[in-house]
Write a structure and sequence with these properties.
With 594 residues, the chain is α+β, with helices and mostly antiparallel strands. Helices cover 55% and strands 12% of the residues. It is built from 16 helices and eleven strands. The strands form three sheets. Strands 3, 4, 5, 6, 7, 10 and 11 form a seven-stranded mixed beta sheet that branches. Helix 12 (461-477) packs antiparallel against helix 13.
């Protein structure tokens, strides 16, 4: 299995230099979240993940979770690691202190999540699902539900799931058939089957809290008739101890391509007792609370896989001997040169690295804006940050998961034939990463969300939250000669994004199919622009630090920035050209002709 070391120096560069995370300490509740404290949290997270989670990754993939007589057993070592993880406070990192949490910024939590996902994606899914359940309950649950259940989720004593998908419906949740019958005592009987439920059954916690979408008897058709219910695996007693088993059972776990240690379950609710979360028929708003958090979390999963794949490929390229460099022997004392001297190997490594470092900057930037949207005392500042998070969420989910899969495959390619062999661990990254492009809304759905919802929301207000600062940065950068090589490519890409946005908005008003037809390319064009903007900002910081003890770090930053802007960013032109054709040939073949 490739070794992994948390990229703490680069994470700190983004947190402390690019984002200046110290400004979060002025927000209510974050006064103690100083850069010094954040650094100590990152150090501890790196140690835990490197020492306890990395060694479980490959064995967990080989053994997987197992189902026998309705009981799911996780791979050896997972239960002990989870206990240590919970006792170490990692589950409660960003939870509200009112429920026993540490109350650290979401920004810090995002950074830690990347490290966890690089170390062991399957393991990270267990607390990740609990986090989604926590967020939904915290925002939409009654005071009674919150006070009773959130402390258990915060400590990790109990875990949570999201039960949305059914055999006949995936993204189109208006087709949900699961029923909820009121019982007259405030509870409901939930009946139906759910599929693709990550961590739906396991042996890591004493209880599992299922958040289930279902329909009340008087529910209107479609998504307007969906309600959300909390259904525990075991019925809790008033003192928090566990009572009898609820009518909830795992009837199968999927035999799937990757993330083998994370059980993907089929769950049957056979008149199970549950409680309404939020208002009747308003489950979609609560579902989107879970889904939006999950989409950001899945984007971080893609980032984590990309970093792990890069490290595995880089380390191998430095020690694998094969051939000689075109310019002559670079290791004349060896029978051959390490393959890192070859241009194609360097191209693949730089592709992964330049995209991964930009993706990290994007994920943490959104994490910081999320904190501002939740904590800032000024309503206008909260709204502006919330707008930006909403706009960038589909980009984080789609761009970062596309990156994870691309990086995994490029990393495997660097290893050549050895990358295809399971014993070496590289191919697992590819199998694990593939699902991230699918679940929590496929990346095509993310593109439709961006084009169909976010572009026109509030008369384009969300777009302005991104367009205005980028435009101002370009204008100020034009006055700095040293920034020319970074500003000009960004300016070209940004101008095309603006042109494409106007085109999509105009054509979409006349023909929604035309906007949908170019949505994936529009999202890609947008993501190229975001990465270019962040690279230009990082390059500006690096230009000022070309001497001193860490000069090599900043020179490497500039090298990555130049590679991205010269060798990756030009790909935006193809997506722009496709967008400007409209639906064109895509609509030329009728469905019956396929």
């Amino acid at each position: 299995m490739p070794d992994y070391k948390a990229p703490l120096r680069d994470i700190r560069f983004v947190l402390h230099e690019l984002l200046d995370d110290s400004k979060l300490t002025v927000l209510p509740g974050y006064a103690e979240a100083t850069p010094e404290l954040v650094d100590s949290v990152l150090d501890a997270a790196a140690s835990f993940c490197e020492e306890q989670l990395v060694p479980l990754n490959r064995p967990g993939d080989e053994i997987g979770s197992q189902l026998a007589n309705g009981v799911v057993t996780t791979p050896p070592g997972f239960k002990e690691a989870y206990k240590a993880f919970a006792e170490g406070g990692w589950i409660s990192l960003a939870s509200d202190p009112e429920y026993g949490g540490q109350g650290l910024p979401k920004l810090v939590s995002f950074a830690v999540e990347e490290i966890i996902c690089s170390a062991n994606l399957s393991f990270g899914m267990f607390p990740g699902l609990s986090n989604g359940a926590y967020n939904a309950l915290a925002m939409h649950g009654s005071d009674e539900l919150k006070s009773f259940y959130l402390p258990k989720l915060t400590t990790g004593e109990w875990s949570g799931t999201m039960c949305l998908t059914e055999p006949q419906c995936g993204t189109d949740l208006g087709l949900v058939r699961t029923k909820a019958e009121p019982q007259g005592d405030g509870s409901y009987k939930i009946t139906g089957n759910k599929i693709f439920i990550s961590a739906g059954e396991h042996d890591l916690t004493d209880n599992i809290l299922h958040l289930v979408l279902a329909r009340l008897p008087d529910a209107p058709v479609g998504t307007r008739g969906i309600s959300l219910f909390l259904v525990p695996k075991f019925m809790p007693k008033p003192d928090g101890s566990l009572g009898p088993r609820n009518a909830v059972s795992c009837i199968a776990i999927e035999k799937k391509m990757g993330i083998h240690a994370s059980p993907t379950c089929q769950i049957a609710f056979d008149g199970a007792t549950g409680w309404l979360v939020g208002r009747p028929h308003k489950g979609m708003s609560a579902m989107f609370t879970m889904m939006n958090a999950a989409r950001l979390g899945v984007g971080v999963q893609g980032l984590g896989i990309a970093e792990a794949a890069y490290q595995g490929a880089r380390d191998y390229a430095k020690q694998r001997l094969q051939g000689r460099a075109p310019q002559g022997a670079q290791a004349p004392d060896q029978p051959a040169d390490p393959i890192i001297v070859h241009s194609d190997i360097r191209r693949m490594l730089l592709t992964i690295r330049s995209k991964t470092e930009a993706a990290r900057a994007l994920a943490l930037w959104v994490g910081q804006e999320l904190d501002i949207s939740l904590k800032h005392p000024d309503a206008a500042a909260r709204e502006a940050a919330d707008d930006l998070v909403a706009l960038l969420t589909p980009i984080v989910k789609a761009a970062l998961t596309d990156l994870g899969f691309e990086a995994a495959n490029l990393g495997m390619q660097v290893w050549g034939g050895h990358g295809y062999i399971r014993d070496n661990g590289m191919e697992q990254f590819s199998r694990d990463a593939r699902i991230t492009q699918i679940y929590e809304g496929t990346n095509g759905i993310q593109a439709l969300d961006l084009v169909g919802r976010k572009l026109g929301l509030s008369m384009g207000r969300l777009l302005r939250r991104f367009f205005h600062p980028v435009g101002a940065f370009i204008e100020s950068g034009m006055a700095e000669p040293a920034m020319g090589e970074f500003i000009l490519p960004l300016a070209k890409c940004f101008a095309r994004l603006q042109q494409a946005t106007a085109f999509v908005a105009e054509t979409g008003m006349k023909d929604p199919e035309a906007a949908a037809a170019v949505a994936p390319d529009y999202l890609k064009l947008f993501s190229y622009t975001v990465f270019a903007y962040l690279w230009a900002r990082m390059a500006k910081l690096a230009l000022a630090k070309q001497s001193g003890d860490e000069a090599e770090f900043y020179k490497a930053k500039l090298a990555c920035a130049r590679f991205y802007l010269e060798r990756i960013l030009p790909e935006h032109s193809a997506h722009f050209a496709i967008i400007m054709t409209g639906k064109g040939a895509l609509a030329g073949m009728p469905a019956e002709a396929f």
